[in-house]
Amino acid sequence: MQQHVPVPTAESSTPPPPAPGPGRSTGGGPGFWRTAHRRPATLGLLPLLLAAGLWLYALPRIGFREMGDYGLLDRLPVTYYLSLLVLTAGFVLGLRRAARAPWWPAAHCAAMLFALKAPPAVLYDAVRYPWASKHDAVVDTLLAHGELRPEAALSGNMSAYDQWPGFFAFNGGLVRAFGVEGAAAYANWAPIVLGLLMMPVLVLIYRTFCRDWRLVWTAVWIFQLANWVGQDYFAPQGLAYLLHLTVLAVVLRHFVRPGSAGRLRDRTFLDPAAAGVPPPTGSRQRAVGVVILAPLIAAVNATHQLTPVMLCVCLLALCLTRRYRNVGLLAVAALLTLAWDLTMGRPLFVETLSTLKDSLGELTQNSRAGYAGQLTGPGPELAGRANVAMVLAITVLAGAAVVLRRRLTRSALPLLLVSVAPVPLFVVNDYGGEMLFRVYLFALPGGAFFAAAALVPAFAGVASRHGGAKPAKTPRHRAAAVALPAVLLVLSAGFLPSYYGKEKMYYTPPAETALVTRTLDRAPVGALILATTGSFPEALHRYDSLEHWYFAEQELPENERMLADPAGYLAAGVPPGATAYVILTRTQDVYTAGEGLLPAGGFDRLRTELSASPLFRTVEAHPYGVVLEYRPAAR
């Protein structure tokens, strides 16, 4: 039978597929075109599948129970590092098609977030960060008593949690909804959940100033790699930070004043990657927006004490631009913050005001990291150096973009101002040795955007979304093609020691947790619990009925004096007639050594001398901890 070969017509310029012959498939038929269309999708999926296979293979081989001086770094198998390498390569390749298929970089960003931060959630049989267990204790107490006591003077710095209870009330609802025993059942998943929720918020912010999907997703990727601060764990700060960014995203997209953009609406004055200024809104629309945002701002105030201040500072910075000058919104945010501080948060607010005279202007003191000591040990020291290197890397990259891409900087000036706005808070307070980390965290969204702008240069011409001539590549673009993957790999290498270098402090064996829980359950109401630091598991269990004294959370010279006579030092601090227990655990040993609170061998000396003292009776002694009871009659 004679085969029919289709003839091209005027309606179609597509050449006909070749007629099949012996041993020849219909490669040019419809099946061929469907295969060719699917090939980019298949290529985009391969790195994800390969990385997932490597990560899953590595997961059971992570020796988290045998961590040494370098935390989790030398316990991660080679296949884990290979999975990150494959993900980075897949992300860079996906950027080439980001304009047509932005979901591929998005999928890689989500996969990288999971790969970086999910191992503790999947593997650990305890809550990561021992101090996170106190947040679980607050949820348990709230569910047990069903009331808040903002005026109560609770030991262990726990009063603030009753004064800012939003996070705990929310998780109390989740515990009831999930039917779990407590928030500890899902606490380790907080970084992944918050990270996934933050991705669309960041995209909204970045798309307000940039239409180049390559730059947008690179900024999200850099944000994840540079977010080593560890404030996205199960704590009020993580939730408040998400709400803070959500408020800013709404303001940046929907609060543009009419007639304020000027030349920024003319593309000839814009960077090729810059997005047009959002449509302006009238006074009535902005007033409605303020009403809509007010509950969200109130939620920030109910959740965390520092974040509302950061939000007000950022809104004040936006008022410096004609584009986002909205004094009404700033006034509402400031009034809500002040109203909460003078009512629910009044005790801590008044106490903070009384300390400002000592901290105001003390830049060196306010910018310190931690309580007082210097990081000691290979892992903590490496983590400290990596932290500094990461901050410098983001700062240098962002600074380069501000200088080299002035047109993009001009259009994205509000984002730059929001990033710089928290820096002056160094002048005010040290926030318990954490102001350095918090300022970096709140400056990071803008820092990541401008760092990405330094690595993803805009093409001189913009190609059509569905075709058209490709823009010509300059030497700068060819250099960026090499610099982008190289810098992303360097940032990945910096994230790992920053996030996992001190992991030995963050994982606690269940046996240690059980020891502490038994001791605190046996302690009578009003008993005094002594420990070197509050950074051990279940340290605040029954916090509403016990008193606490963390006697090593002070300057190193004072701790050295304490070690000269530990028994006498502690006995002098116990109130007459009080029942007191000393709990010394493995986690405290690791933490006080790593943070430099005690000199080398100081914890062992403390444990030995207290155990031998007639003033203290050993209640329980194990390799992972010892419990001692104070016996004043033997003095």
Automatic annotation (TrEMBL):
Residues 1-13 have a biased composition (Low complexity). The chain crosses the membrane at residues 41-58, 78-95, 186-207, 213-230, 239-256, 327-349, 386-404, 411-428, 440-460, 481-500. Residues 1-32 are annotated as: Disordered. The keyword Transmembrane applies. The keyword Hydrolase does not apply. Keywords: Membrane, Transmembrane, Transmembrane helix. This is Glycosyltransferase. It comes from Streptomyces lienomycini.
